[in-house]
Amino acid sequence: MELEVRLRAHRDAGKKALVAYLMGGLSDDWVDGVRAAVHAGADAIEIGLPFSDPMIDGVVIQRAADVALARGATMSSILDEVSSLDLEVPLVAMTYYNIFHHRGLDRAAGELAGAGVVGTIVPDLPLEEVGPWRQASNAHGVASVLLVAPSTPPERAHAVAAASQGFVYAAARMAVTGLASGEGDSARVVAEARQGTDRPVYVGIGISGPEQAAAAGEVADGVIVGTAIVSRLLEGEGPLGVERVVASLRRALS
Fold this sequence. Notes:
TIM Barrel; globular
């Protein structure tokens, strides 16, 4: 699939990947924030589709989802804006299964692909239940990225990593998204994931700044950063604030 081909090529070139998360529909200029993140060095963009009852998102991302929903953001409106983006990096959508189930799996996958999205992260969809969504998304060339957590037993971690498409999302902490200190369990989780696959493995959850990004990059193929970026938009710093934080993370990884 396109997502995996592009990310493997990035790794084979000896580069550490930086995935920047932004909440879709958060503000009038959120797509400019996406462009700013790419300009500052993001290698892929994770776009949040807001959901009213998120299970893995911390206070900042929850607040961003609430703001986006209050502004009237929907999957359709966000994908309409996404389709206007002309970027050289892959786009991955992150949301919860109810959004796709309610819409219809084939329809949802087709709309994602039509907007240029090449992957999804659905954290409340376990390995045993991913089949129907994988079938629908694969038919449209959209990869299904799965998560390995610190609490995942080794054998299951290997199975999840083997089934993941595009890359493996290695959660550094047993926590919701947000700022944190220290490196968490990233080294162990990445090591477990790599026993199940040779796909790129990226660390997310709790990557708060350059030092943590650099540390995670020592053990993983890349990092995923959301809260530190989204908070800039919530605080009114706009695309310039996004560019500043992404640039600092890029320097640390490079």
